[in-house]
Specification:
Blueprint (H helix, E strand, L loop, with lengths): L1 H23 L5 H14 L11 E7 L2 E8 L1 E3 L4 E2 L6 E2 L5 H13 L25 H6 L7 H7 L11 H9 L16 H15 L3 H13 L5 E2 L14 E4 L3 E4 L12 E3 L1 H13 L4 H7 L11 E2 L6 E5 L2 E10 L2 E8 L4 E7 L6 H12 L19 E2 L8 H5 L5 H4 L1 E5 L2 E10 L2 E6 L2 E7 L4 E4 L3 E7 L5 E5 L6 E4 L7 H4 L4 E5 L4 E8 L2 E6 L3 E4 L1 E4 L2 E4 L2 E7 L5 E7 L6 E5 L2
Antiparallel strand pairs: 1-2, 1-14, 3-4, 5-9, 6-9, 7-8, 10-15, 11-12, 12-13, 13-14, 16-17, 16-23, 17-18, 18-19, 19-20, 20-21, 21-22, 22-23, 24-25, 24-32, 25-26, 26-27, 28-29, 29-30, 30-31, 31-32
Helix pairs in contact: 2-11, 3-7, 3-8, 6-7, 9-10
């Protein structure tokens, strides 16, 4: 019966999708419609078998669904298929909804994007420079990322329920920022959690209630909700799954009770209503919708690819505005082509899916490019931070004169004031840049110049004390110096052992030497083996540790950094 129900529901979805395609007259003939659908089916074939999670896909022309279909199961335990009406947790796709919600309060005259966050959240520390709501929205505030802080503080995903008050408590402990507000871009979920707090304190309603009243109901998004309570029932919800063993799965769903940066639950059908609003302006009006798509700027005028919960980019020569989402094993992508008022949404309940790629592949099939648009090669989803108008020319002469073998360029590269190094990995004649946890291949342009993603220059040049220097981007970007590699002896490792405590995190770490390696131990984090990176530096579990010495040369503490939370101090206790 379950198998029959599956096939029957699938048939209804296919028939409905074909009817919508015909009504929209996107493809002139039945054969082309069938061929397009077959091509989309082929893209999602890995998630069409029985007993596998999958994805829902929706292709939109304004607010009309040209195509909508589900692949795989929304619930493996009850054999429930995914349909266009299945509700998914869409993670960071939530941010654009939080931005519009706050934008409504700006339009009402209740707040300003240039207000200091401490006006509404006075429990945050005074860092000496105001942090504006605009900087929070654009990820230029310098406030450390909440998920990185929580993890370092010992919170366990899948084991601890994280609430808004927990994040506020942790942010109120911070004694420093990643950087001075407005001088850099680092993606920080903390900013959108704080924006949600502002909405709640100004409106007197939770974000869930405010968004339902001012956004979802006016737009007809009847299956969309901000889930700010992990016990809240969400009808027709898809559960998320991670692979386990050979062909098996286990549950992998968020257990936090916090909204703003994440926790929106919605469907591809409701996202069609959301897409329509960008053109119709039913909620917010055309001026506000246009403002929310304006790219942010740094203090020096550099423009970001990021707007208010939206990211600007291109795909095959077409302008895009998009955002993806990742939480536990939920994956999502909402990809808009603003010049054509078209969009593709791909929502998945499996962590091995790549909805960013899937959405662009579907667009290539279902949204034929206008003849005036060129661009035969695939372009990747946009990556922040910034492009800079009229950049200074790089020192090409120094770079061109550098004739160094790839293996000699490998290593860690550091810059003053930032304990998150860049790493260059050599694999034969090829180099890979590891920056903020992401590996990106480099293509050689000349002896000392490489290209990142086909456009951004990565330049190597001679530096002081015979050490190579590295720069990513134009000459206005920071310069990193290659660190001298070290391999401490077991005896040398002993001076790092002991216990340390961080007031910023409210947690203690212990370091031991086991099997000639330095090992971090914490009651909730467990055992984390560390590898040396440079003098007094270690790396493990995606974290970078830089130990500090006092005037006598004794280890007095250290800082720990991740790609989104920098230089968090620990002091030695014993």
């Amino acid at each position: 019966m379950a198998a029959l129900l599956w096939r029957f529901r699938g048939a209804l979805v296919v028939l409905a999708a074909i009817g919508l395609l015909a009504a929209a007259a996107v493809f002139p003939g039945t054969a082309q419609r069938d061929d397009a659908e077959a091509q989309v089916d082929a893209i999602f074939r890995p998630w069409t078998g029985r007993g596998t999670p999958g994805c829902a896909v929706g292709v939109m022309d304004g607010g009309e669904l040209l195509f909508a279909k589900g692949y795989g199961a929304a619930n493996l335990e009850y054999d429930v298929p995914i349909t266009p009406a299945t509700v998914f947790h869409v993670a960071s796709v939530s941010k654009q909804f939080t931005a519009l919600a706050l934008g409504l309060l700006v339009a009402d005259g209740e707040v300003s994007w240039d207000d200091d966050i401490r006006r509404y959240v006075p429990e945050l520390p005074d860092f000496g420079t105001p942090i504006t709501l605009r900087q929070l929205a654009h990820h230029t505030s310098g406030i450390r990322d909440q998920w990185a802080l929580l993890q370092m503080a010992g919170w366990r995903w899948g084991g601890d329920v994280i609430r808004q008050a927990d994040v506020l408590d942790l942010l109120s402990r911070q004694t420093g920022l990643n950087f001075e507000p407005g001088t850099d871009y680092v993606y920080s979920n903390s900013g959108y959690t704080l924006l949600a707090v502002v909405i709640e304190r100004v409106s007197g309603q939770t974000l869930r209630a405010f968004a339902d009243r001012r956004l979802f109901r006016p737009l007809g998004m009847t299956h969309t909700v901000f889930r700010d309570d992990h016990t809240l029932l969400v009808p027709n919800r898809a559960y998320a799954y991670a692979p386990e063993g050979f062909g098996g799965y286990r549950l992998s769903i968020p257990d936090f009770a916090i909204a703003g940066a994440t926790s929106l639950f919605t469907t591809v059908e409701d996202l069609a209503h959301w897409n329509r609003n960008f053109g119709a302006g039913v909620v917010g009006g055309s001026d506000l919708l246009r403002q929310l798509q304006e790219r942010g700027e740094l203090n020096d005028g550099a423009r970001l690819s990021y707007a208010f919960g939206l990211m600007h980019g291109t795909h095959r020569g077409r302008r895009t505005i998009s955002h993806g989402g990742t939480d536990s094993s939920y994956r999502s992508e909402f990809l808009r082509f603003p010049d054509e008022d078209a969009a593709v949404a791909v929502l998945c309940n499996t962590g091995i899916a790549d909805p960013g790629r899937l959405a662009r592949d579907v667009a290539d099939i279902m949204l034929p490019r206008p003849a005036r648009i060129a661009g035969p090669a695939r372009e990747t989803a946009p990556r922040p931070p910034a492009d800079r108008a009229l950049p200074p020319e790089p020192d090409r002469d120094a770079a061109a004169s550098l004739a160094v073998e790839p293996a000699d360029m490998a290593g860690y590269y550091r810059r003053p004031g930032n304990d998150v190094p860049l790493r260059i990995v050599a694999r034969g004649e090829n180099l890979t840049l590891v920056a903020r946890g992401v590996e990106q291949p480099l293509r050689r342009a000349s002896d000392g110049r490489f290209l990142l993603r086909g456009a951004t220059e990565v330049t190597f040049a001679p530096g002081g004390e015979g050490r190579l220097q590295l720069r990513v981007g134009d000459a206005s970007r920071p310069t990193y110096s290659r660190a001298v590699p070290v391999q401490p002896s077991p005896g040398a490792l002993a001076e790092y052992t002991g216990t340390y405590y961080s007031d910023d995190l409210g947690v203690g770490y212990a370091f031991r030497v086991e099997d000639d390696r330095l090992v971090l131990w914490n009651r909730k984090l467990g055992r984390i083996p560390l590898a040396p990176t440079f003098a007094d530096g270690f790396h493990g579990a995606g974290w970078y540790f830089t130990f500090r010495r006092d005037d006598a040369g004794t280890i007095a503490g250290f800082t720990v950094s991740t790609s989104r939370a920098w230089n968090i101090p620990f002091r030695r206790r014993g």
